[in-house]
């Protein structure tokens, strides 16, 4: 019996995802982004409530600047974006794909009752669309 193709975000999201808090240093964040090969990550509070998002692009200039000036790197909370595009775990993959055509983020936090429950990437959605097509 063939595997059923995924239809909602919950079926394709990464549950155990890299995340940071506002007190994380930008240099620690940069190391984590490189290690996990992510273009950006959700920022959460101590209860895993989504409070922001920070990307490679947000931090690249600051890391460069602090290395030139021998300054302490700034904290994530100083650079994160507070307005975050997030999705619900029960959102249709095809609806999300349509939204992604006009939106910039490559990584979307998946939020349920205000708490981060995972992330979904454009690559995850594209792979799911291909599986749906061949199902």
Fold and architecture overview:
The structure is a single chain. With 135 residues, this protein is an alpha+beta fold. It has a single domain (9-134), classed as CBS-domain. It has five helices and four strands; from the N terminus they run αββαααββα. The protein has helices at 26-36, 56-69, 76-79, 93-100, 122-134; strands at 40-44, 50-55, 107-112, 115-121. The chain has a two-stranded antiparallel sheet with strand order 1-2. The chain has a two-stranded antiparallel sheet with strand order 3-4. Strand 3 and strand 4 (115-121) form a beta hairpin. Helix 1 crosses helix 2 (56-69). The mean pLDDT is 90. This is CBS domain-containing protein. InterPro entries: CBS_bac (IPR044729), CBS_dom (IPR000644), CBS_dom_sf (IPR046342), CBS_domain-containing (IPR051462). Residues 13-72, 80-135 form the CBS domain. Keywords: CBS domain, Repeat.
Write the layout of secondary structure elements.
Layout: H1 26-36, E1 40-44, E2 50-55, H2 56-69, H3 76-79, H4 93-100, E3 107-112, E4 115-121, H5 122-134
Antiparallel strand pairs: 1-2, 3-4
